Amino acid sequence: AAPLFPDRAITIAVTGAAGQIAYSLLPLLASGSVFGSRQRVALQLLDLPVTESVLQGVTLELEDGAYPLLELPVKYTSVSEEAFANADIVVLLGSFPRKPGMERKDLLAKNGAIFREQGLVLNRVAKQETRVLVVGNPANTNALTLSQFCTAIPKVNITALARLDHNRLRSLVARRLSCAVSDVHDVAIWGNHSSTQYPDVSFAYTSGVPVGKMRAALGGESQLQSEIIPTIQKRGAEVLALRKLSSAMSAARAIGDHLRDWMLGTASENELVSMVVASDGSYGIEKGLMFSFPVHCYRGGRYKIESSLSIDSFSRKYLEITQNELISERDEAMRVVSKMC
Ligand code: LMR
């Protein structure tokens, strides 16, 4: 694809830049595998002061990569204003991780404070065109909190990551059907990036399995319910249990895919990808809720929720469950942050 900004670098701010996901993501951004082999890239890395030496080490490694597209020197800081200033894209990896024994409420409170603050900073220093991608969990609700406090950036420019789940499902379908991943189209993730998400194959197809036949090809509704859906819902936890660390390589890859499609458009115009975006009321999902939908992406950072799919009773049940969870997360987060004002 032609570079988005032929005459200048695309400026990308990354928070949590000393962390695991960043360590896999930064080389993707610097090498041109996200925004193309002709788009110069400027990185503005942010992390907490306690990680300063790690962040500095990562910066040295980026320099040592001698990436032809990467602007030097690479900026790193622990001051959000400096990281976010002039950014075209802000990728928020940093969040307060869930610790053993921590209640969901406590997690929402900690992250409510972080994403309120980041929204306020973005409000002061970001450009209106800035595109924001929230990755740190609970990602949907963190994105919602941020957007409440960041009125300078239109809500359509604030998204969260569902592409990791989307890629997991696409790959699982390919493995089950013994076909290439590239042959699997239009899987969809609905709702929360959590164990209530609904991984949906109703509209998926391959060269051998036409639209409408995918459930049957995968063993029917009972197989979906007992095996395929829970596998995707729990995949993050499975990786965490095995690696003793959250998914990082696959998360970075998903972030690259999300950003590429969002900014440059999907390779084929009809392709559906999954993104957490503010609901426009489609499918009866409460307007404004940050909810993963199947979307179409168009060059220039635009997308449209695909609003004409028909949802049967099997799917509807799952949509309700994940919507209810998101509403309760939102209510709890809003209760907490409203006390901070
Ligand atoms: C994942 O889906 O792998 C992660 O979001 C899990 C986590 O809680 O870090």
Write the layout of secondary structure elements.
Layout: E1 10-15, H1 20-31, E2 41-46, H2 52-64, E3 75-77, H3 80-84, E4 89-92, H4 104-125, E5 131-134, H5 139-149, E6 158-160, H6 163-177, E7 188-190, E8 198-200, H7 214-217, H8 221-233, H9 235-243, H10 249-264, E9 273-278, E10 290-298, E11 302-305, H11 313-338
Parallel strand pairs: 1-2, 1-4, 2-3, 4-5, 5-6
Antiparallel strand pairs: 7-8, 9-10, 10-11
| Overall SS class | alpha/beta
Beta-strand proportion:
5-15%
Q: Regions with pLDDT < 50 over 5+ consecutive residues?
A: none
The average pLDDT score comes to 96
Our Rg estimate from Cα atoms comes to: 19 Å
Terminus-to-terminus distance: 45 Å
Outline the biggest β-sheet. Answer: 6 strands, parallel
Describe the overall structure.
It is a single chain. The chain is 43% helix and 15% strand. With 341 residues, it is of the alpha/beta class. The strands form three sheets. The protein has a six-stranded parallel sheet. Strands 9-10-11 form a three-stranded antiparallel sheet. Helix 1 crosses helix 10, helix 4 (104-125) packs across helix 5 (139-149) and helix 4 packs across helix 11 (313-338). It starts with 9 loop residues before the first strand and ends with a helix. (2S)-2-hydroxybutanedioic acid binds at residues 137, 164, 236, 239, 246-247. Residues 12-157 form the Lactate/malate dehydrogenase N-terminal domain. Belongs to the LDH/MDH superfamily. MDH type 2 family. Residues 163-333 form the Lactate/malate dehydrogenase C-terminal domain.
